[in-house]
Amino acid sequence: MKDLKSLLEKVRKKILEEKKETKVDKKSNEYKEKKIYNKKEKRKSYKESKKNIVSSESKIAQVAYALLFDKTSNYVFEVKYSKKFKGYNATAKKVNNKITFNLSYYWKDVDDDIKIGLLQTLLLKLENKNKETINIDLYNNFIKNLHFTNTKKEFDEKLSLLFEKVNIKYFNGLLEKPSLKWEGESSRTLATYNYHDDTIRISNVFKDAPDEILMFLIYHESLHKFLKFKTKGKKTFYHTKQFRRLERMFENFESIEDKIKKYLLSRKKKKYLELFSKSGF
Ligand SMILES: [Zn+2]
């Protein structure tokens, strides 16, 4: 196994080198292009250089797969970049033997080693498997250390105000403000914090909930932002002991769960009450 790994490492390096060369090629192509006045020629060489870049991205996906599963893949990979994503979000889908990765365009300039970790994480989700690799470690650290100074944030006015209160009361006003949004009722979660786009989303179900409940939801999700997450071997832990200990610091924590349940009952949100009882948030 070790030998295979070191072999793969060599393959990986070679591919990454090839990728760099492709980039250099593109530059020299562009230089040559300036000398070519024939428009047709120009279009042709542009198309070709673009094709090279696309294929080098799919090579990264092949490397990610090989390093993850210690074997080469029979899948056809495609890596696409899109501006439709907020922050560093990314998805993957599998149709027959083709796997398409859709990455936020923010990923375009991220180091290949980290990108490989992202692709591996998406692959594990698709295959419903657990594994650890150096690249996944790099990826997790990258996500934990993301700073969103460049990303445009979106704030709902009410949630924003309540966040400020929570921040002052429980974080000495030191927590960097994430985006705060309402999320449609169709979603399967009541409240979430997403590390990839630094956003707290609260379900519309709570649109007319008392401030206390909303503040608790915001506090819980802010704790996720504050504490990040722990990875241990195959698993990622979000609700650690430390998390639960800090969660209990919320004023009147003992009664908040009942209040949430009562609120959901009063709104005839049985589906959400079940969701809350089963998995919390
Ligand atoms: Zn949580």
Detailed description of the structure:
By secondary structure, the protein is α/β, with parallel strands linked by helices. The protein has two domains: 129 residues, no CATH class; 123 residues, Zincin-like (2-Layer Sandwich). Helix content is 55%, strand content 14%. The strands form three sheets. A three-stranded mixed β-sheet has the order 1-3-2, with helices on one face. Strands 4-6-5 form a three-stranded mixed β-sheet, covered by helices on one side. A two-stranded antiparallel ribbon has the order 7-8. Strand 7 and strand 8 form a beta hairpin. The radius of gyration is 23 Å and the shape is elongated. The model has no long low-confidence stretch (mean pLDDT 83). Zinc ion binds next to helix 6.
What is shown here, in short?
The chain is an alpha/beta fold and 281 residues long.
What labels describe this entry?
281 residues, alpha/beta, Zincin-like, 3-stranded mixed beta sheet, elongated, binds zinc ion
Structural class: alpha/beta
Tell how many strands the DSSP assignment holds: 8
Given the C-alpha coordinates, what overall shape results? elongated
Which bin fits the share of residues in helices? 55-70%
Beta strand %: 5-15%
Topology:
Blueprint: H1 2-35, H2 39-69, E1 76-82, E2 90-95, E3 98-104, H3 112-127, H4 134-144, H5 157-171, E4 179-183, E5 191-194, E6 199-203, H6 211-227, E7 230-232, E8 235-237, H7 241-247, H8 253-266, H9 270-279
Bound molecules: zinc ion.
